[in-house]
């Protein structure tokens, strides 16, 4: 399995609302069009109204690469920058866990 955690910090409250709408539209397509995307969880951060955390888990690197090439993902990547103050990505190496077959 292949995964990552991403912390997005929006510029302001208006940007956060627009980011949430963009995310909602994108996740709808991920649910229906990406069988190799096992988990794509979007979280608000308690006490940090401008931050969002994504946890993404893919069947393998090829599934992640396929995700990155999707039209909806490319639209998200192109539209997000004007809404964000920062993006931090941590790549994960799954060791073990429940529901992961690891």
From TrEMBL:
Domain ABM: 2-92
Xref: Pfam families: ABM (PF03992)
InterPro entries referenced in this protein's UniProt entry, alphabetically: ABM_dom, AI-2_Isomerase_LsrG, Dimeric_a/b-barrel
Gene3D superfamilies in the record: 3.30.70.100
Domain of life: Bacteria
Keyword ATP-binding set for record: no
UniProt keyword annotation of rRNA-binding present: no
GO molecular-function term, one example from the UniProt record: monooxygenase activity
Keywords: Monooxygenase, Oxidoreductase
PANTHER family for the chain: ABM DOMAIN-CONTAINING PROTEIN, QUINOL MONOOXYGENASE YGIN-RELATED
Protein name: Antibiotic biosynthesis monooxygenase
Organism phylogeny: Bacteria, Bacillati, Actinomycetota, Actinomycetes, Streptosporangiales
């Amino acid at each position: 399995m292949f995964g990552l955690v991403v912390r997005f910090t929006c510029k302001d409250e208006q940007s956060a609302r627009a980011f949430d709408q963009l995310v909602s539209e994108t996740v709808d397509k991920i649910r229906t069009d990406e069988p190799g995307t096992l988990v794509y969880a979007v979280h608000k951060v308690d006490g940090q109204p401008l931050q969002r955390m994504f946890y993404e888990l893919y069947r393998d690197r090829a599934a992640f690469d396929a995700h990155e090439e999707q039209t909806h993902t490319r639209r998200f990547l192109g539209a997000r920058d004007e809404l964000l103050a920062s993006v931090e990505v941590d790549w994960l190496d799954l060791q073990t866990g429940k529901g992961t077959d690891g």
